Amino acid sequence: MICLLGQDPVLVSLDRIFLLAEPETQVEGSSEDAVQETKKNRVQEMEMKLLEKVQELKSDVNKSWLGSLISTIIGNLKLSISNIHIRYEDLESNFGHPFAAGITLERLSAMTVDDSGKETFVTGGALDRIQKSVELDRLALYLDSDIAPWHVNKQWEDLLPSEWVQVFRFGTKDGKPAHELTKKHTYVLEPVSGNAKYSKLRQNEFADSGQPLHKAAVNLDDVTICLPKDGYRDVLKLADNFAAFNQRLKYAHYRPHVSVKSDPRSWWKYAYRVVSDQMKKASGKLSWEQVLKYASLRKRYISLYASLLKSDPSRAVVEDNKDIEELDRGLDIELILQWRMLAHKFVEQSLESNLDLRKQKAKNLGGLDGAVSL
């Protein structure tokens, strides 16, 4: 099928998306270098995203031909999502009581319609006034307690597409895809269907009529929500398990690589460092010495980072600089990003100032040439 962008609706179709997840709660100790490398990569990734957002705010794409094309495509996007099943199995959070949670969706579709509810295609100024229609079929959320986890005798990646469909529809039995549902789901949200309408008025219509600029109406069939006692127990255990895992993960780089029995001293040091770090963060207070230290560090960091950016205008971020890496070791990611964005702003203002200065010099030289010719 050939689709002419800007002339035909763009169809996005997603079908048979299956995902099976389980928790990974074993946290291994990481070296300080490995932690710093991960931190460095995360900072660079987030810095690039922030810079991209800044550029998007400055760009004037919406007034260009490309912006018009993009608006037309989005305004006429036709969406179809069907046969979705995402399942989470947990054998660890509530030991002896394995449970599974999942979300299923039979179909979700959305399209642009006219005043009579028929599918249409809009362009140009008509995009200022858009109407969308959404259809929902059998969206459900389940939480099954005391379950037997799904199991197949071969690798999941070796399953045929038809076997994946069978597993996520009926489960497994004796290491193979089952042919019928062995146990009904315990639904937190019973399968629900419905439809929705969305409309956006033109600015002049909004101003003249006094009606809402955006209007949405949602109609759902019977909505039944229920959380049984066993499900409530499993949710609490899951929340506790995630909280404990996040705590272990946060201090993984302190964690010894040996067992408690072989080196208890290292584990006592680990416990002391973690508790000390938590108490320091909980207090939320800085001494005057720390305030002065961070003020001096901030000035040094921004100045160094800005000078590195100026030395090579072609690069968006500074990579593999030993001085910056050494400073980053003792700083939180949020603080690093804040200081780096300030450095970018300083460089931008400096370049704009230099450009204005050159323009002023050129203007003065032009005036001088005119005076000489007279």
Summarize the structure.
This protein is α+β, with helices and mostly antiparallel strands and 374 residues long.
| Count of beta strands | 8
- Relative strand content: 15-25%
Question: What general outline do the C-alpha atoms trace?
Answer: flat
Strand arrangement, major sheet: 1-2-3-4-7-8
Profile the largest sheet: 6 strands, mixed
Parts with pLDDT < 50 across at least 5 consecutive residues: none
Number of helices: 9
Q: What share of the residues lie within helices?
A: 40-55%
Structural class, from secondary structure content? alpha+beta
Description:
This protein is α+β, with helices and mostly antiparallel strands and 374 residues long. Among the domains are: 10-42 and 61-147 and 183-228, no CATH class; 288-366. 45% of the residues lie in helices and 22% in strands. It is built from nine helices and eight strands. The strands form two sheets. The chain has a six-stranded mixed sheet with strand order 1-2-3-4-7-8, with helices on both faces. Strands 5-6 form a two-stranded antiparallel ribbon. Helix 1 packs across helix 9 and helix 7 packs across helix 9. It is flat and about 80 Å long. The mean pLDDT is 82. Residues 5-354 form the Chorein N-terminal domain. Keywords: Transport.
